[in-house]
Every structure is written in C-alpha cells, then in structure tokens.
Amino acid sequence: MIEDPLSPELGDKVEKAITLISRHNGVVVALSAGVDSSLVALLARKALGDRSVAVTALSESLPPGELEIAEKTAEGIGIRHIIVRTDEIHDPSYSSNPSNRCFYCKDRLYNELTTIASSLGFEALLDGTQKDDLADDRPGFLAARNHGVKSPLLEAGFSKRDVRDTARALGLSVWDKPAMPCLSSRIPHGEEVTEHKLRMVGEAELFIKNLTKVRELRVRYRNGSARVEVAPDEQHLFLDEGTMELVNQHLRDLGFTSVTMDPGGYRRRESLASGGAEMILPMADGDA
Fold this sequence. Notes:
The protein has 2 domains: about 160 residues, HUPs (Rossmann fold, 3-Layer(aba) Sandwich), CATH 3.40.50.620; about 100 residues, Alpha-Beta Plaits (2-Layer Sandwich). Helices cover about 40% and strands about 15% of the residues. The protein is built from 10 helices and 8 strands. β1, α2 and β2 form a beta-alpha-beta unit. α1 packs across α2, α2 packs parallel to α3 and α9 packs antiparallel against α10. The longest helix has 20 residues. The chain is globular and about 55 Å long.
C-alpha cells in the first residue's frame, strides 16, 4: 500500500494506538469489511507483525460481497486472515429479533475469537469502535465488555473522520467505503429474522447496486414488502422510470409483495418508521 504523510494530530493518534496494541502479547482483530476494523487490523500488523491475526465472521446476515472485501483488505495489509462460521440465525434469542439482537451476534463472535486467541497463545481481542460510535445505541458494546475486547481507536481518540483520513493516508482501499451493517438490521425489531428474508434483502441490494451503481443503499423488509432507501445525493442514479420498473420486477421475483421507495432517502436507523411518505415504484408489464 502507498502511504501519504499524516497530519501531526493524526500521526500522534496513530502512534498512540500502535503503542496500545503493542502492549499485548498477540491480538485477534474482529475484521468486518468496514474502514474502522480495517484500520485496526493495519495498525495491529504494524505493531505486532505476525503476532496479529484478523478474523471475519461468515453468516447469513453478512451482505453479499463483504467477505471478499475483507479478504482483499487483509491481503493488502499482509495480516493473516481467518474466517469463522457463526450460526446466530439458529439462536432463538437472535432470530426473534429483540431490540438487543446485536448482543447475541457479538457474543457468539467474541466466543469464537476467544477460542482462536487461546489456540494461538494471543492475549487480546480488538475491535474497531471509535468515538462517534458512542452516540449510538449498540447492544454489542455489552458483549464486547463482557469478553474484555479492547478498542484502540477509541482509546487513542479517533473520530470517524479521523479514521477515514488516516485510512486514506495509509493506503487502505476501504477508506471511503459506506457503512454496511448486517442484513438483519433491515428487518424491524420484533419481526422474525430468517435465512429466507436475509437472502431476499441481500439479493435485492446487490441487484440494485449492480444496476444503478449506487453506494449508499438499504432495502428494508417489513411484512413481506420492500422499502428502498437511497442516499439523497445518489437518487438521480435510481429515479428513472425504466430503472425503477426493473427494480420493481426483480424484487417481486425475489418474493417481495410490494416495492416502495422512501423519497427522504437513506438515513441511519434499524427499523422502518410508520407513517412516512412512500413512493410506489412503477409496475412492470404484466403486474396487476
């Protein structure tokens, strides 16, 4: 990777994070395909070399293409990459989709990481939590605390902007990658999470991205219907009658009973707000 100079402030934060990581006799990094954990993996490799590994969880809730991005990122960093299969979808505490669903997912993940760390003789688990994450309601934080997971970016004072600027300067290809939480986050709390629903959502988002080239997108599932959210600055890529007809037809073929678009665009949230404005997509030929 080609690196650019860091500002003095970011340089200090990078050095602090590396120092924090270096204190541990081996680390296991929970690596998603996102920029936060990717930066931690890079800094862990700089700090400890082969005494660091990155682990990515593979499950039905992982969006299509995310595993390949994580693999490519780990290869670029030069850190050993391990893929573990988690089956949280078969845990009723998770699949019933309570408001703390993420706790059960992260608890399983950190159990797997603890096993790997023990087998390698490594001391610590690391995640990509940074300052801006503290503003969110994240039940996974409790799981991390229960397992003693360390957050070097948070301890070093990184904000999300700091993370992206640092990742860019250090040559990480995912520096500007939009956040991509698990597919279960597209299903409102209280509605059961199933493999079939997750597959529908994942295939719908992949189709729309390939068709329109939008980057910030959610297809939210509610009682069999799909609600498409596209970032406001990318809606021009989607708001074409021919495109919407193709999307409508394909999502119906996947099994959605109806397809609407939120004119307000994508915004961070876990569940669909009731009563919001919706735009029904044009019906394809043959639809009643």
